[in-house]
Amino acid sequence: GIGLETVKQLAENGVKVIAASRNKERGEAAVASLVKDGLDVEFLQLDVVNEADIHNAYQYISNNYGKLDILINNAGIQVESDSDWAINTSVNVNEKALRETFETNFFAIIKLTDELLPLLKKSDAGRIVNLSSILGSLTLHADENSPIYGSKLRSE
User: Which of 46, 55, 80, 83 lies 20 to 30 Å from 71 when distance is taken between CA atoms?
Assistant: First the structure.
């Protein structure tokens, strides 16, 4: 996906990358493939909704590198509804699923960024990059010409 391609392109351009994933097996396999291709990438298990994992990520980066130059927030989920609608809305997704989505896609990213901010401040040019899909765009949700807007109309 977007995360793996981002890791690959950064590493191909000489950036030391710590690739994080909540799924240890898939993350390790992805990193092993990149390392096999000669890229400088290492794996760190991180589930952004797990505060212990967030703290462990801070400790790992602090102990091994002392700073963080780039934080790329790419974690995100989309809980599927049981509806025939083309996209999820608050009408066709239950409250528990909505809370899980917001916890992962919003609150956990804030927690992670807050935890790692001291390491970013130690960098000469610390940067935070927040990635999202087209579904994260409020502008496109309101644009009549957007494929998202159109899919809502077709499903109603």
Answer: 80
